[in-house]
Each structure stands twice: as structure tokens, then as C-alpha cells.
Design brief:
CATH class of the largest domain: Alpha Beta
Shape: globular
Largest sheet: 6 strands, mixed
Structural class: alpha/beta
CATH superfamily of the largest domain: P-loop containing nucleotide triphosphate hydrolases
Strand order of the largest sheet: 5-6-7-3-8-9
Strand content: 15-25%
Radius of gyration: 29 Å
Number of domains: 4
CATH topology of the largest domain: Rossmann fold
Length: about 625
């Protein structure tokens, strides 16, 4: 395997904070590598060092000669006066440079013969077509629009198109799925799976990791661990590593107690053998006290009591610029339900959230809210706080104490500790926090108000995998309603009971199932439509309308139609029981693996049964 990248003994710190120490790894041609770690562990810093945008304290980064490298950063550096196409073609790629020179020369009416030959040589003629094709998939359609006029999400998508169009040998991506809707994420997943580029990326999308990556690099306790497999393999082997480490610490603890007893019984050591045993005692002591500092977010906030009346919308409409983004939407929320919202960007998802929270008024219709409802609205744009303010002061402006699920009251300093802001970090200025730390602080300020109707607009952006797992467990057990907009398919599958699907601008469908079930249903619909079209094309003579007999359920199908809801309910119950066992911490490593595999089988089985029920329901009620 050709080695494209070699990282040797890389160390980086900021003051007294050491991010990572003597990291060493290589990336070979064809590998698809993901870097995972908790927020603040240095993932983005590592990518910036590899890309040459930052410098390490020690160590070196070496790329194979003539390796073409593309880097999608979290923040682009496009000039505001650039057009979208100019931004897409802004690179050192030889073909792209020739395209720019060709267009400038042609616009001046000068001879372009020699440039045409170079365009042929570099196969540059199809670049513009490919660029527009990729931009279209990312739903950027105004190619002459200035970059300064685009939203942050649109700029990120233009930057993504910029690195993809060049098809570099080595592609580095920092959170590529942020600001993409679900359709775009799945398109990118498919595109990268077929790409010849070697990948090194940071992403928190677990399905994306599972389906695209074949190597996981984990930064943990300032050290690097390599797992040659996808995300599911990583989870299994990471738990094995932690269990082995804890076993070694336990064994060292037992040895330490025996050696300590021996040391106390001995007179001053003079013999060589006794002295060597005394010297080895310190090493045993270090191993015995080598505790893992997990640093895991703890979310155990008590929700306010929720009455019978929640939020009700009746015939709600909202239009902007003549476009009806929400059209006659009616729904009455029930206690403790968990609802996901999916749809393409720009179809009105955030508009619906703002209507339900009465942030904006509907053009017609009505939204009412129960007296006991306490709304917590986590907005996509993040926290709005004075960058010169200290973290602890931002939280104290809301409350001095926070009531927890066990009834205890915590001071804001203690509560900040639960969200991985120790006393030293509590004095940090907001403007100095990383993206992940800002998201954690924002989530903390929302939850400490004890909401019982929680609205989350893209909550997983910039949160690490461990924090997301804790948040998922909290939301599943929350004694209140949850409404989620997210492009993270795993997150949605784990939490929501049903979906509001924006199938088009203003048209909202209530789908009874998870995102994966909806995706299977949509694929089934597309396949059915294609089959019907193919069948129609084959029909030469059509029978009169009144002669076409309506399809009826057979005897066996009727029985299946009756039994499927019971089977689905039983599977849901088994899944819930297994998830409780998985979260209990009482299972052995073998039992954990067996239970997690069974949960995966149940999820697949549930998807198939829900899809079959929908198919039979359509026939029964068609």
C-alpha cells in the first residue's frame, strides 16, 4: 500500500493544556480514516497541523511527493465579492487555473487556440459541468450569487463542492455533514464511497462513519488508538480496550496491597534483592492508581411538571415572498411524545418551529399552549452571549441553583462540572471556547430552565460522540415532549416515535416510524412507481376504467395485516428491554456484544415489518 501521509511523534499544547502527546500514525492509499475524540481533545487542531495551517510543539508531518491534498475546513476563506462559481474554482489545480485563464482570455476577445489545446490536455472541458452538477446536489443553484450574500450553511456547501471538484489524491474533511440535509448527507455518503480519494475526516455522524470509513483513529487521554474497521467494530474493540485496562488496574491494585503490606513488615532495605523489590514498588503503585478520567457529560435535570394540554396547532399557515412554507398544519401534541422533523433545506422546518413556539405569528390559523408548558428552544445558530463574559457569569444570569432529577439542588458551579466545565474552565471567557464547548454551554443554559417541551434544531452539530450518547439517553427518558430537527440519522432513529416529513415546501406528512423506516418506505414507493411506469409502457391496449378490478387483500394477507401491529409492538418491547440492559452497566463484554447485535437485528426486522404493514394498509384502504 502506498503511504500518502506519515505523522511522527506529534505533540500540541496550549499553555498548560496538552491536547495530544507524541501521536504517531500513517494513512495509506485507499484508506478511509475517521478521527474520533471528545470535544477539546484536538481533532480540528490535528487536521490543521496536517494541512500546514498550524504548527506542532514537536514532531513532523510528511506527505508523499506530488500528493494532491484537498481540505474542507470548518471556516472557509472565500472573499465576499467572489461568485459561487469563482469560489468553487478557487484552487491550485492546474486544470482549474487553465479554465480561469481560458474564460478571461475569451471574455477579452483574444485568441484562445493555445488555451484550447491545454484544456484538451488537462481534460478540463467537463469541469464546469461537474461543478454545477455537484452544486445542484448540494442545492446551490444561483452560480453568480456573491459569497458575501450566502448563509453560513450555504458557504459550507460551496466549500465542500470546491474540494470535491478537484478530486484530490488525499481528501481531508472537518465535519462535512454539518449544514447538509438528510438527502445531501446520503448523496455525499454515496459519492465518497465511490470516490478514489483517500479520506481523513472528523465527523460525528455515526451512520456516515459506519458506511464510509474503514479505519478509526481515537484520541483518548492524549494518546492515539487505531481500529481497522468501521464504527461498529470500533465501539466493540474500544470497550474491550477499556475493560482490559480496568482489569490490569485491578490486578495492579491487588499486587500493590500485598507489596505495601510486605514493605511495612520489612526493616530498612540493605540487601540487593530487597532493594530492587522496594524500587519496583513505585511502578506497581503507579499502575494501581492509573485511573481513567472519562470526563463524561452528566445530564440529570428535572423537567417541570407537564399538564394534559401541551401545544396545539390548528390550520396554521405561513408564507414568505408568496411561497407557502407552512400550509394548513394541524396537530395536537400528546404528553411525552418524541417527534422528528425531516426535509430538504429551505422547505420550512425552522419556520414551523418558530410558529409552534410563537416566536412568529401565523398568517392564518392558531397556535395555543398549555399553562404548564415550559419550552426549551435550542436553536441552530447557537448561543448568543457576550464573548467577554466568563462562562460562570453566563450561567449565573439564568439561576444560582439547578434542580436535578433526584431532587437535589446544585450550585451553578457544580452544574457546570456536570457539563465538563471544571472550576478553572468556568473562569474562561466565552469568546475563547471551542465550537464543541460553546454547544455544551448552550445546551446547559437550555436544560437548567427545566423545560418539559424541548425543541432541538440540529443539536448534534459540534457535539462529540460521547456527549451525544448521553443526550440520547436523557431525551429518551425525559418526562416531557421532544421535537427534533437533525441530519443525524442515528440520533433520530434512537429517539423519535414518529416524523413530520416536509415532502415539499408547505406540505407536511405525519409518518408513523423512525427515519430508517421512512427511508425504506420511500425506496419502496420509488421502486413501486418505476414498476408501474414500466408496466404502463408495456400495455398497448388499455381496458376501460370500469373494467379494472380493484386489488383486494387475500385471506393470508388479511391475517398478516391483523398480526403485524402485535409483532411490531412485541419487537419494540424487546428492543426497549435490551436497551435498558445495555445502559445498566451490568452486562459482561460478551453479553454487551450479543445484546447490541440483537438490537441491530430488531431494528432491521422492525423496518421490514413496518414497511410491510404500510404496503398492506395501502391495499386495504386504497
Amino acid at each position: 500500500m502506498i503511504a500518502y501521509l506519515q505523522v511522527e511523534n506529534l505533540t500540541k499544547s496550549f499553555g498548560d493544556l496538552v491536547l495530544f502527546n507524541k501521536l504517531k500514525f500513517g494513512v495509506g492509499a485507499g484508506q478511509r480514516v475517521a478521527i474520533v475524540a471528545k470535544n477539546g481533545a484536538g481533532k480540528t487542531t490535528l487536521l490543521n497541523i496536517i494541512a500546514g495551517l498550524d504548527t506542532p510543539d514537536e514532531g513532523q508531518v510528511t506527505f508523499r511527493r506530488d500528493t494532491g491534498v484537498g481540505f474542507l475546513r470548518q471556516q472557509d476563506n472565500f472573499l465576499p465579492e467572489m461568485t459561487v462559481l469563482q469560489a468553487v474554482f478557487a484552487s491550485d489545480n492546474a486544470a482549474v487555473k487553465i479554465i480561469g485563464e481560458y474564460e478571461r482570455t475569451a471574455s477579452r476577445g483574444e485568441d484562445i487556440t493555445h488555451l484550447s489545446e491545454q484544456m484538451d490536455a488537462h481534460k478540463a472541458w467537463d469541469y464546469e459541468h461537474r461543478a454545477k452538477q455537484i452544486l445542484g446536489k448540494l442545492r446551490i443553484t444561483d452560480f453568480d450569487q456573491r459569497m458575501g450574500e450566502l448563509s453560513g450553511g450555504q458557504r459550507k456547501r460551496v466549500a465542500l463542492a470546491n474540494v470535491l471538484i478537484n478530486e484530490p489524491d488525499f481528501l481531508m474533511l472537518d465535519e462535512p455533514t454539518n449544514h447538509l440535509d438528510l438527502d445531501m448527507v446520503e448523496w455525499l455518503e454515496d459519492y465518497l464511497s465511490k470516490s478514489r480519494s483517500t479520506l481523513l475526516m472528523v465527523t460525528h455522524d455515526r451512520y456516515f462513519l459506519d458506511r464510509v470509513c474503514n479505519v478509526i483513529l481515537e484520541i483518548d487521554q492524549k494518546q492515539l488508538y487505531t481500529y481497522k474497521g468501521n464504527f461498529s467494530y470500533f465501539l466493540e474493540k474500544r470497550q474491550e480496550r477499556i475493560d482490559n485496562f480496568n482489569s490490569e488496574v485491578d490486578r495492579a491494585g491487588n499486587l500493590y496491597r500485598r507489596e505495601l503490606e510486605w514493605i511495612r513488615r520489612q526493616p530498612s532495605a540493605r540487601g540487593t534483592k530487597i532493594k530492587s523489590r522496594v524500587d519496583a514498588f513505585d511502578e506497581v503503585k503507579d499502575r494501581a492508581f492509573a485511573k481513567r478520567r472519562e470526563g463524561q457529560v452528566e445530564i440529570n435535570v428535572q423537567a417541570s411538571r407537564l399538564g394534559k394540554k401541551i401545544i396545539a396547532a390548528k390550520n396554521v399557515c405561513k408564507a414568505y415572498g408568496g411561497v407557502e412554507y407552512v400550509d394548513k398544519f394541524s396537530y395536537e401534541f400528546k404528553r411525552f411524545e418524541k417527534v422528528g422533523i425531516i426535509g430538504k433545506n429551505g422547505t420550512g422546518k425552522t419556520t414551523l418551529l418558530n410558529l409552534l413556539t410563537q416566536t412568529i405569528e401565523p398568517d392564518s390559523g392558531h397556535v395555543s399552549q398549555g399553562e404548564t408548558v415550559v419550552v426549551g428552544y435550542y436553536r441552530q445558530e447557537g448561543i448568543k452571549a457576550d464573548p467577554e463574559k466568563r462562562v460562570i457569569d453566563v450561567v449565573r444570569d439564568i439561576a444560582e441553583y439547578v434542580k436535578m432529577g433526584d431532587g437535589k439542588n446544585l450550585s451553578v458551579s457544580q452544574f457546570l462540572n456536570h457539563f465538563l466545565f471544571p472550576p478553572s474552565a468556568q473562569q474562561t471567557l466565552v469568546g475563547k471556547l471551542s465550537g464543541g464547548e460553546l454547544r455544551r454551554l448552550y445546551l446547559l443554559t437550555i436544560l437548567m430552565r427545566q423545560p418539559n417541551f424541548l425543541i432541538l434544531d440540529e443539536p448534534t452539530n459540534d457535539l462529540d460522540l460521547m456527549t451525544m450518547a448521553v443526550l440520547e439517553d436523557y431525551l429518551k427518558e425525559l418526562d416531557g415532549c421532544v421535537l427534533i430537527v437533525s441530519h443525524d440519522r442515528y440520533f433520530m432513529d434512537k429517539i423519535v416515535d414518529h416524523l413530520f416529513v416536509f415532502e415539499d415546501v408547505g406540505r407536511i406528512k405525519d409518518f408513523p416510524g423512525s427515519y430508517s423506516s421512512y427511508r425504506d418506505y420511500r425506496i419502496w414507493q420509488e421502486q413501486k412507481q418505476k414498476a408501474e411506469q414500466a408496466k404502463e409502457e408495456k400495455v398497448v391496449v388499455k381496458r376501460p376504467e370500469n373494467e379494472v378490478s380493484k386489488r383486494k387483500l387475500t385471506f393470508n394477507e388479511k391475517r398478516e395485516y391483523r398480526e403485524l401491529p402485535k409483532e411490531i409492538e412485541e419487537l419494540e418491547k424487546e428492543k426497549a428491554e435490551l436497551e435498558l440492559q445495555l445502559n445498566s452497566g451490568a452486562l459482561s463484554a460478551d453479553e454487551l456484544v450479543k445484546a447490541s447485535h440483537r438490537v441491530g437485528d430488531i431494528i432491521n426486522n422492525l423496518g421490514n415489518k413496518e414497511l410491510r404493514w404500510l404496503e398492506l394498509d395501502e391495499i386495504a384502504n386504497g
